[in-house]
Each structure stands twice: as structure tokens, then as C-alpha cells.
Amino acid sequence: MSRSTLGIVMNGVTGRMGYRQHLVRSILALREQGGLALPDGTVLWPEPVLVGRNADKLEALAAKHGLSRWTTDLDAALADPANQIYFDAQLTPLREAAVKKAIAAGKHIYVEKPTASSLTGAQELARLADAAGVKHGVVQDKLFLPGLLKLKRLVDGGFFGRILSVRGEFGYWVFEGDWQEAQRPSWNYRAEDGGGIVLDMFPHWQYVLEHIVAPVRSVYAHAATHIPERVDELGKPYQATADDAAYGVFELEGGIVAQINSSWAVRVNREELVEFQVDGTHGSAVAGLRECRFQSRAGTPKPVWNPDIPNTVPFREQWQTVPDNGDFDNGFKIQWELFLKHVALSAPGTPFAHDLWAGAKGVQLAELGLLSAAEGRRVEVPELGRGA
Ligand SMILES: NC(=O)c1ccc[n+]([C@@H]2O[C@H](COP(=O)([O-])OP(=O)(O)OC[C@H]3O[C@@H](n4cnc5c(N)ncnc54)[C@H](O)[C@@H]3O)[C@@H](O)[C@H]2O)c1
């Protein structure tokens, strides 16, 4: 068995996503399982170099996980030929410049979403990466959630008949930071730092809808800043200049209507932090992060409106659960495995299903969602070609 080492420059690993999901749950988990086995018996061994601004934090992080490679010098990490992949989970506005440097250094690119702050910027990154002949990918983790994999299984099996509509509810209460510490970083609530729930969540809804139901053809969004003042990590009050809730209506190909509420100012009264209900002529399903419940046409009750008596129908109990029928790994890790295999095995020029062109579509939907919200009108979503 031969072992092939892949050096990965990981920028932004002190952050929530970079640390927990990408370093610990993906790259370190891959190392704990002995690397990633390829069909020919070779084992890919990911060798991260932790990059960031704060040497003390990086050193502590590396020591905690038995890693030796860390640096505050991104250029030096990119200049090292042992490093073949650049990964970016920095806060969004910093991504474009760093990715451009990495492309210029000939590295394969894997990045968090949104890939850039504007559609123009996102397309430029995809174009530059193609021109340099490097492979590229964007995180689209929600596709690999157990609940959404089960939902996709129902779609692929023809369960729904003709799909009519999708209703999504995402969100939870994010504390303001005064009497309880906020559980999200303060930049999320400042537009000038790349914050806002439209820019954060619409890229996710774009690929979830396109891959599982149908591509988005138009958007109407109402964005709001429900909590205008918050308190930051240092205990200092600041103005929330970005939207913290977005109420979106998306028209999908085939006339399907998707309506998705995203909010950091809502209290959870559902089974999971995100839930999508899909209604079709032959059945309906509600998918969350892990579970998916369904009700078929034959099992559909016939409720009668009568507020004069207490409800007699246990509606929630009339749904069945989609079985696991297998094991589910962490979604971020699954996608890392796909990308590493793409880097190791696919011929130059082979597109990756979740590449920077796909990432640009997410940025496009966020941009058009914000335009819709600003102008109070429905906006068409033009199809984006590769190389557009
Ligand atoms: N896929 C997902 O579900 C998901 C979820 C949340 C966030 N994200 C994306 O991941 C990226 C990081 O988000 P996060 O929630 O981990 O943020 P975070 O604030 O926890 O981490 C940000 C990282 O960027 C680094 N950084 C570099 N320069 C900085 C600066 N000037 N100010 C602040 N931080 C700086 C920080 O050190 C840290 O490592 C964002 O682009 C975000 O859109 C993706």
C-alpha cells in the first residue's frame, strides 16, 4: 500500500467553521481513520499547515492536535511546493484576495461559501482557476446532511409525483451579546464586514434547491434587521448594519414555488434547526438535518375546519420516518473526501460538481436577493454558464 501525501494550506482554522468542521471533523478525522483510501490501493494522507494571523492561537491549536506545521505567513505557505491545496474559511471579504494568490501559486482551491463578495468577483475566481488549470471546489455541505440525503432519496425514487412547493424554515435565536454572549461572531451582523443572513444563507438555498428539487429562476426577498444593536466579543455595543432575517420566495424551474424563511431572531418551535417541507401530488415530506418524515397520498387525512371543538386529529403522528438504511458521516468530511479524490484522480479539465462556477451561482442568488429586497420587487435569476 503506497501513501501519497497532500499538503493543504488551511487559512481561517481558528474560526468556527475552519476549526470545528474542516480541521477537526474533516481533515483530522480523515487522519484518524488512516487517510483516504483510493480504488488502486493508494492512501491519500492530508497534511495540513495551519495559517492565520495570531501565532499564539495557531501554535496552541497545532500542539493540541499533534500538528507541527503552522504559520502566519500565507505567502511562504503558498510558495512551498509540498502544499498542493489552498483551503479558505476566513471571513468572507478576505477570501478573494487570498484565493487569487493561491491560484497564482498554482494551488488547487477549496473554499467556504460565499466564494466572493460579489458575482463579478466569484466569476473572476472561477475564470482564473480554470485558466491556471487548477482544480477547484466550494463547500456545499447541506447536500450531505442525513435529512437532505433522505429527501433526495424520496425525490429520486419518484415519491412526490409532481412537486408543487417547498417551504423552508431556518433559524434560531442568536443572543444579542448583552446579558448572554452571542453564539455567532459579530461580523455576521455588519454589512461592511461581509455579514448578513442573505449573503450567508441564500448560497446554501441555491444549491439545495437546484440539486434536490429544481434550479431557481426568480427571487423575491424581504430582508429585515430585527435587532438593530448588538454587543460584540469585547463587550462593546455596535450597530447591526446587516440583515438578520430574510423572507424569500423562489420560483423554480417547472413552476415549483419555494418559500424559505431564514432568521437569527426566531425561537425554535420545530424538530430541527432547519426544516424543508416538500409537497407533491403523490406525497409530502419534511426533512431536517438528520430526519425526514413523509406522508403519502393514501395516508393523507381529510381534516375538517371546526374551531368549536378541541383538535381530535394527531396530525404529526400521521407521518412516517424515512429509515437510515446506512451510516451517515459528517457532511463536511464527505465533501472533503470527494474533493481530495477529484484532485488525486480526475484528469485535468474535469469539472467538479461543486466548483467555483457552482459557488458563483450561490453568490448570484444572494446578490439578486439583496437587490430584490432593496427594490421591493421580484427579480429573474439568469442562468449562469461556465466561463460566463
Ligand atoms: N458552510 C457553512 O455552513 C458555513 C457556516 C458558517 C460560516 N460559513 C462561512 O465560513 C467563513 C467563516 O465563518 P465563521 O463563522 O467560521 O467565522 P469566524 O469569525 O468564526 O472565523 C473567521 C476566521 O477568519 C479569520 N480572520 C482573518 N482575518 C480576520 C479579521 N480581520 N477579522 C476577523 N476574522 C478574521 C479568523 O481568525 C477566523 O479564523 C465565512 O465565509 C462564512 O460564510 C460557512
Automatic annotation (TrEMBL):
Key words of the record: Oxidoreductase
Domain GFO/IDH/MocA-like oxidoreductase: 149-285
Pfam families: GFO_IDH_MocA (PF01408), GFO_IDH_MocA_C3 (PF22725)
Gfo/Idh/MocA-like oxidoreductase N-terminal domain: residues covered: 50-136
Keyword Oxidoreductase applies: yes
Superkingdom to which the source organism belongs: Bacteria
Keyword Oxidoreductase: yes
One of the record's GO molecular function terms: nucleotide binding
Family the UniProt entry places it in: Belongs to the Gfo/Idh/MocA family.
Family matches, as PANTHER family: CONSERVED EXPRESSED OXIDOREDUCTASE (EUROFUNG), CONSERVED EXPRESSED OXIDOREDUCTASE (EUROFUNG)-RELATED
Protein name (Swiss-Prot/TrEMBL): Gfo/Idh/MocA family oxidoreductase
Species this chain originates from: Actinospica acidithermotolerans
